[in-house]
Design goal:
The chain has 15 helices and two strands. It has 296 residues and is mostly helical. The protein has one domain: Orthogonal Bundle (Farnesyl Diphosphate Synthase). Strands 1-2 form a two-stranded antiparallel ribbon. A hairpin with a 2-residue loop joins strand 1 and strand 2. The chain is globular, with a radius of gyration of 18 Å.
């Protein structure tokens, strides 16, 4: 096994990209415009951080990568749907995503709404179409994990809190509560679904979950810093949008320098959660570094 993270991540990004290419309906299938827009929203872009977390946790748990890739694709479909809906005029009203026009700009608002709906449905179809665990109860747990992460007590709830917080000043604990839901819930689901494709005890699963909770927060802190400091061309999305929309962020709450320090502290705590696994957790450790030290 290569210890080269870049080679490992490239291989697994290509792997999940291939699965997404395969499971998304083709543009030759009616309704062609919807299927074209779904493929536009999902394929050929993004860091694929959530699928990589699933693969890394799956590797830790000794899972079959052929099973993990389906769970990873399901999580990425949920993430892609959330981006399409977040960019709509009724939400963040953004025109650029992953370096190209957002889905509603490239197509239209109604189509973008349906794209999000269809991607969410497809994610759960994948979890039913393929065997990801020997025990059906474990696979059902994966379905519940993803549903909870996407719902009102997860990502959708976090987005509602975000909308209600515009123009307000939030404390760091209030920001954490929002982002544990909005960003962190799906990141935790990605890691746990990957881990459940293999064989880990409940205590070990709890340690993976704790790692993912901490690194999910770190992911958001770094996002806030990059939004404030990086140009649009580097980000692939509109830079400075949070400040323009008067949204509370870790940068507005504590300043960019303190936010960077906070991200490092979260990284150290996340790595601490993996200590009991030793070398088995190499990929999760490398991902923690990638998430916190990234420049884009």
């Amino acid at each position: 096994m290569t210890t080269d993270f870049q080679a490992w991540s490239h291989e697994n990004v290509q792997r999940v990209e291939s699965v997404l290419q395969r499971v998304l309906p083709g543009t030759d299938i009616a309704p062609a415009r919807l299927h074209e827009a779904m493929r536009y929203a999902v394929l050929g872009g993004g860091k694929r951080a959530r699928p990589l977390l699933a693969f890394a946790a799956g590797e830790l748990a000794g899972a079959d990568p052929g099973r993990v890739e389906i769970g990873a694709a399901a999580v990425e479909l949920i993430h892609a749907y959330s981006l399409v809906h977040d960019d709509l005029p009724c939400m963040d009203d953004d025109v650029l995503r992953r370096g190209k026009p957002t889905c509603h700009v490239e197509y239209d608002e109604a189509t973008a709404l349906l794209v999000g709906d269809a991607l969410q449905s497809l994610a759960f179809q994948l979890l039913g179409d393929y065997r990801l665990a020997d025990d059906a109860r474990v696979q059902l747990e994966m379905v519940k994990l993803l549903a909870a992460a996407a719902g009102s007590r997860g990502m959708a709830g976090g987005q509602q809190i975000d909308l209600e917080s515009t123009g307000k000043t939030l404390t760091v604990p209030e920001l954490e509560f929002m982002h544990i839901h909005k960003t962190g819930a799906l990141i935790r689901a990605a890691a746990l679904i990957g881990a459940r494709c293999g064989s880990l005890g409940e205590r070990e699963l709890s340690q993976v979950d704790h790692f993912a909770k901490l690194i999910g927060l770190a992911f958001q802190v770094v996002d806030d810093v990059l939004d404030a400091e990086s140009p649009t061309a580097t980000l692939g999305k509109t830079a400075g949008k949070d400040a323009m929309n008067n949204k509370p962020t870790y940068v507005s709450a504590m300043g960019a320098s303190r936010a960077r320090e906070f991200a490092q502290q979260l990284r150290e705590r996340a790595l601490g959660a993996l200590k009991a696994f030793g070398a088995r957790a190499l990929r999760l450790q490398q991902l923690a570094d990638f998430i916190v030290l990234r420049k884009f």
